[in-house]
Amino acid sequence: MCLAAPARVLAIEGNEATVDYNGIRAVARLDALPDPVAVGDYVLIHTGFAIRRLSPDDAEETLRLFDELAAALDSEATPSPRQEPDTAHEV
Fold first, then answer.
1. pTM of the predicted model over 0.85
2. Does 88 fall in a domain?
């Protein structure tokens, strides 16, 4: 299964864009996009390549769903109880 994540374009230099993944900056290649993008656009990034431009509504909805998924996974994760080593051995 492949996963592409939406990111907002912060800057463009040649065929590379600096993008923002909810506070994390990365560089993505723009070679795979048929249409030009501009600063402020949202794009789907897969393996370092922008593969599709998204509308702001679609991007924000996808990011909201990612946040919901992360919250659900966090709430399901329960730390296992710490077990003390058994130091009382009969000899």
1. no
2. no
pLDDT band at 85 (very low <50, low <70, confident <90, very high): low
What is the DSSP track for the chain? ----EEEEEEEEETTEEEEEETTEEEEEE-TT-SS---TT-EEEEETTEEEEEE-HHHHHHHHHHHHHHHHHHHHH--PPPPPPP------
Sign of the CA dihedral 21, 24, 25, 31?
Answer: negative
Over residues 22-79, the pLDDT tens digits come to: 889 999 999 999 989 999 999 999 999 999 999 999 998 988 988 898 888 888 875 6
The domain total for the chain is 1
The reply to whether 68 falls in a domain is yes
Q: What is the amino acid identity at position 13?
A: E
How is residue 34 written in tokens?
Answer: 């048929």
